[in-house]
Amino acid sequence: MKRFKIRWLLFVLAFFLVYLIAGAVGPFLYYKKVAEETKKNFSASDCYNDTAGVDRAMLLETNKSAWDERIRLFHQAKERIILSTFDMRDGKSTRDLLAVLYHKAEEGIKIKILVDGVSGTIRMEENELFYALSSHPNVEIKIYNKLNVAVPWKTQGRMHDKYVIVDELAYILGGRNTFDYFIGDYPNKNMSYDREVLIYNTDPQQRQGDKSSLYQVEAYFSHMWKKKECRLFHDEESLSKDEKVKSMIDMLTKRYEKLKTENPDLFKPCDYDLMTCETNKVTLLSNPTGIYGKEPVLFYELSELMKQAKERVIIHTPYVVLNGYMKRELTEIAGKVPDSRMVINSVENGDNFMASSDYLYRKKGVYNTGLSLLEYDGGVSYHGKSVVIDEDMSIIGSYNMDLRSTYVDTELMLAVQSKELTEELTGYMDAMEKDCRVVTGPDTYEVPEHIRVEEIGVWKKIAMRVVGLIMQPFRSLV
Length: 478
Known about the structure:
Blueprint: H1 2-25, H2 36-41, E1 55-60, H3 63-75, E2 80-85, H4 92-106, E3 110-116, H5 117-124, H6 128-134, E4 139-144, E5 163-166, E6 170-174, E7 196-201, H7 214-225, E8 230-232, H8 243-262, H9 272-275, E9 277-278, E10 281-286, H10 297-307, E11 312-316, H11 324-336, E12 339-345, H12 353-367, E13 372-376, E14 386-389, E15 393-397, H13 403-407, E16 412-417, H14 419-433, E17 436-441, E18 444-446, H15 458-470
Helix pairs in contact: 3-4, 4-8, 6-8, 10-11, 12-15
């Protein structure tokens, strides 16, 4: 009888495991093709303009600059603040940002925050810090596709977008999540390099015929905010009476005053005209926004832009996971463009175990695209997602060159036509590439003398090889 119960329990557990895996993977096993309508609706030439536009731009290359400009921008809000993020976690930098947001809410500024469902469920539930903000009458927080393992076919629908909009003044868009790993310079055991771009709208009254890209991002946010998958997060004013929540509100109030005292320059009027550079055109590129398998719209648009290059295409992505369609497109680009290269984290330097395992298993296919392949060994994992095309096009956002970003997640990239910004971005890329190994074959490298590659432990290396093989039927989610 006891053996029967154990067998029955094992059967139930095995069935539940199969149910979870099959349910989660099933909707994404088939790779959708690019629709003819998508091809008709997009032209690379639409991302270019012959004269200066109303938008000006600046790169946020360091975690400290990301912290500075969020606080500076929040402080200038007169009507509304929008924050959309894939991952928000409690931490010192997060508390700084929320302290400013709470203060602005007290001033009457309307604040809307949208967070991915996995982060919202795992990181924010049962945390009074987030209840302190959500309980304010001028703040609304929504969760996109809240995690529910009972319906596993919905669990992989993730919102990977990361941006901030303040009034009609400016916005920030890029690859940074909202916690200490990506924002601020507090002492932290783990951190990651990333990249964003701030776009300043010089014509908020829209007196000119050229309309700021800010309204494209705003329209995208409005579309996401209204989706049925987005649900309010503890939008209850009564929570503010809870003793623990009241303690958090008091902490945020005091933290704001401390921030203002210690960082007076961030709370003064600033001249974004002096801080930013001229652009000809800024265009928002995006994936479909549903929770199931997606048409690879964003990858198609990026590929079409890269195919127009005459001299160079530089791709920086944390990791690379390709299927046949993506390999064919990148091979075509490599065959057309004289200087075409891709920079990724080395397996030793990266922080994505699954993507690194797949890369080890399929590295030959990536190398055979013909792109010059470089692996970054700078000691800190690199999380930026950027493309440079020739001398005047910089593309920055949340899209990784992998299957998940192509077919599963919502993703945003900003195509910025600007010679000055592209020159600056290329300088940062060149500096980073000095700490890269050049892949000369599936198992060979050209290694600069100053690079010391950190060795992977034997058992981790074996685990990567095994996982790389086992995960092949499920790699659509990597």
